[in-house]
């Protein structure tokens, strides 16, 4: 039997405690799989005395996570502190510089400092594994980094935030308002007290930024992502989508275009008959399209202590199976120094179909004016649904347009024109349509 | 730059030629990902002169694949000959004994000799990779063998045969008969001239047997699989399924039960709202349920030269990233010598819901007799659909029963009883229902 692999865990919250429990309860099976034992040699957390359902008495205790990261008594440093700077960054840097492998679930950290950290890891010849950082338990990093070797990716997209998907699922299933669903999500612990980070798409953006780098061999650029959250999605949108054969999901999408890479996070219409449309509740899903393999989709739990811990344990097991002398694959698919600069595509040139919902005055000539603005901008329409006068009796009418493939610029110009015409009662709603099988 | 990894490919059919083309066209990117070049050093095939869209002039030619397998000029032997014995087995054995890593897409070979071959690989300290053997381009082997380390699997199930899924999809979408769809599948190259192997479930069984071993850490036992194909699925079944909120798929299912492992391949009703129900055409999908991660589903192309080649190239890239001194994980998740004996659960004790379609004489008392047989066997019913007298005017009537969870033994007894009662005009149709999200 080879020597045990010694793990140091910084952060013993929900995920950290679950990792410690799995390493303990599944010790025999992991030893069999990896050819050597994996032991929790050291830990660091805020509260030393909390009961975490696992005996950590044999592990060395560190008050300072950076001291743990540098400790000569560990082989692998597991960072579960969180945050895109501060102690998490200091720890991971220190661990890599000390020649320790690192496993992290920290998407914010990687979205901001991933390339710099990868450079250190590759210089020191250690692994930096981060399966848990994107889509929780779904092995999308392993799939893109290892299984898709040799594939050229054209598009990657997914449901990367369970909170948003939970809210959208309940809004559709139960006809509830966004606010009511958000409150329930908060009550059930699926959403934070301040839900902005989730519902405005920032969390999705962090994960997408990491996937984009892996997909296209470019530097991570989380700041270049077009961002639109789900807080302005109404029952009217969800019902109209359903009538037209679509379902609304918050997607992160990255596409290689002729002018550069397009990264966007926004509410998206996907065909109800597609696989991704059936991904309900807090479940996540990621789809990747490549030249050789074709289209692959993975769905599963995107959050939660156990699912995330499963990804962390998988990362640790991969390290346990490696040995000195093993040449590790690069952190982001190609060596960090050879990652291409990120070249952003102009969002105004995004091409695709659009759903446009207009609340207009119920008077003669409005529909003709709307149709003219579309035609003037060369937008051809796939379908037009005009609902009769509203039940509110306020003289409003709803017009729903679904366009064939057109450009973002054309849609924006058409909608500006319609707004200027003075027929609108309410803000126009524009939702992009994404092709999905 | 480290030394090149030298590949020997035996079998240059659709998949083999595609592998050679990818290794050539993506050489630069693969070198970057793996830290060293991968070169096709030797090949063996039936026809030396066929144009395969890639220049293999620099590769050493072997008429005898076993000689290629033993050659000291290769590091990795790629077996794409096919067949569960004969040259494929001889080659793979010879390559492993010669200390070469092996990559194979051969499910039949592994279903029959997988454990014996794994023992040789583990004794020689080389890798035996077989991602392409199950579900083509879907990285289910990597996911179960690596990403799910530490997880205890309770159930694995999937759509593992594209031919069957293509036929069932078209039957439902277009209302065509099984025979008409099979003919089209043959014309399009999705089905063999003799389609028995696919449509009677043997191909699915081979793949399931491999997944079962990975899932439960047991020896491969393809012969223990309960087998039922799709050739007796009629439009009546598909329509009735749709009315009840189900879709029919040929699934391979392996479940850990209290009495042992249940492996079965049969037409299955899955809820229309489930993700797996949306997997259409030749696409495959595999779902795995575990204690830590929860439920994960992967869907993608299950066959085809390129998709299969993608999996083979991924396996080769994993070997390229390893180096001497690397301790490989076991072939089937736990060391071959420690795989548990396969303990078969009795199919008669299978528990689940059932769909039962009966064509009965349209006369008084039939329904009461059917209901009594169900009650006598403690089968409680979820729904009963009784269609009016048939359009054929032949005095027949259709009764469809959907049961709550019950046992295979109870259902068989009830159906035997109903048959004895003499009310049936046609053979009763029994289709199992599988829980899926």
TrEMBL record, chains A, B:
NADP(+) binds at residues 10-17. InterPro entries: ACT-like_dom_sf, ACT_dom, Asp/hSer_DH_NAD-bd, HDH, HDH_cat, HDH_CS, NAD(P)-bd_dom_sf. NADPH binds at residue 107. GO terms for molecular function: homoserine dehydrogenase activity; NADP binding. The active site is at 207 (proton donor). Pathway: Amino-acid biosynthesis; L-methionine biosynthesis via de novo pathway; L-homoserine from L-aspartate: step 3/3; Amino-acid biosynthesis; L-threonine biosynthesis; L-threonine from L-aspartate: step 3/5. Its EC number is 1.1.1.3. Belongs to the homoserine dehydrogenase family. This is Homoserine dehydrogenase.
